[in-house]
Amino acid sequence: MAPNRSNSMDRPGSGNCSIMEVGSGILALSFAIKESGFGLGIVLSVAVAILTWFALYILIISGKKINVYKYAILCEATMGRFGFYLLNSVIFFQTAGACITYMIVIGDTIPVVLDILGFEVSRRWIIFVSSLLFILPLLFYRSIGSLARVSMVSVMTLPPILFAVAVRGMYYAPEHKRSYDFVGKNVFPAIGVMAFAMLSTQTAFLNFTTMAQPTRKAWGQATGIAVSLSWLISFVFAIIGFVSFGEDVQPNIFNSFPLTDGLINFGRGLLGFSMFLTFPQAFYPARAALHKVLGHEDNHIIPTDNEHFYTTLALFFPILVCGVFIADLGLLYQLIGGFCSTFLAYIIPGACYFLIFWRKDPSSLRRLSKPPSSSDSLESEAGGAGEHGRESRYEDGDVDSLENIEEDGNNDEDEEERILKQKLAQDKKSELGLEEEGRNIARQHRPTLTNDSATASTPILDRHQLNYGSTGASEYSSSDLQSTNYATISRRESAGERKTELWLDVGAGILLVFGVFVMIISTTITLKKMAGYM
Questions:
Q1: 237: which residues sit within 8 A by CB, 6+ positions away?
Q2: 384 lies in which domain range?
Q3: Which of 23, 74, 112, 209 has a beta carbon 3.0–4.6 Å from 12's, enabling a disulfide?
Q4: Membrane spanning segments where (predicted)?
Q5: Same-domain check for residues 212 and 77
Q6: Measured between alpha carbons, how far is 51 from 515 in angstroms, rounded to an integer?
Q7: Cβ-contact 41, 335 below 8 angstroms
């Protein structure tokens, strides 16, 4: 039996991923615009960006509601073990598929550069040998945080790659025919490619818990900026590629250029190099998902050294074989994007939201967190302690639910007692604050008897005014004031909550319907195409 190994990888401060990462999917966006039609492609790109932002937003709101800050645990809390395995399976195929696309891009770029340098090597041998030499050694670290500098170098290669395409692309524009029809011939698979390029929900909680001020407002602003910048960079690049090559644009835009262009070949070399460095960013989530499905990792344990080593090899070599023998990047983008990306980006966040906020009995959610210790209870009474530390760090002015989900289902009575204590502590604070406010008001209205004239000219407050805020029994006691105040606050919160819930409900519904619709149609069309090639 494996020892109890603490898993702290998902605690606040452990993450270093960006909210939006640009991977190999950006290379296919020009192809996606051609497939969907120029006009509709731009409209759909904006819609996909907005839905991506909204999915990130409601995912965090759903997690905060039940005090869960991990994607897999959220799915298990809402859908049971089925949701846990469903999410990890989809993440596995999404990220493993992304790894295969990186290898295909390596096969499309590195052989061209080596041929220019006088080394003629086949595409398959380049993928096989370079993956063993340059990718495999990067995969044995336990945390992607160990490769932070490698990831930074990979990101730094993006600007010169985009610059090379933007500068040289327009030079070849007169040689190619293009159509600016509003609607294209392959709309739904194109949406899958866009979803593949914009996907980032699998890192939402990791990024949220590492924010300096992880509030809903800050999260909404941060993700809004990140998604907007990602859309701007990606689709300016995509439009330039489409305008340059039109109907001849390829899923890997570098394949649209001739092999004799020096600046483009420099870009090809940088792109292939960046794929070596970017590969671990997709491989690590795939391995983590596999560990969870196999039972090697959960909320409290991490894999042993042997499990980590053998799982890494068992996952890497099938990906390597697929990368060596699969060459159609476009169909792979459409299949992964149409099924996995839409599932992760739209369907699961929307489903989790409705299963949490529309559930009649919230206590029916699975209790998944570690039961709090006595010290946790004290922290909870003082400031609110959550799964990841002090809950006050996650507050943003509103009153979150007191229904903190716990792991052990046999501790219902203890949990109810803890919640009751926390509620009483909050009521006590409110009562003391209201009493102090009442005393201050009484002091302000108390007459000052300095002399007879002052006494005669000063109006005497009546009994009701003098007793306002006093602790004794009176018509205007602090308990009456507290009741009135609670009723006012309750009415305001109810009105605000109804407005917010209506907006979120409509958005989550659109997210869910859009995701299911696109996934079914896109996957069906792509599978028919793949069957036609066989």
A1: 26, 29, 30, 162, 165, 166
A2: 364-443+459-501
A3: 209
A4: 39-61, 82-105, 125-141, 148-167, 187-210, 222-246, 266-286, 307-326, 332-358, 502-525
A5: yes
A6: 10
A7: no
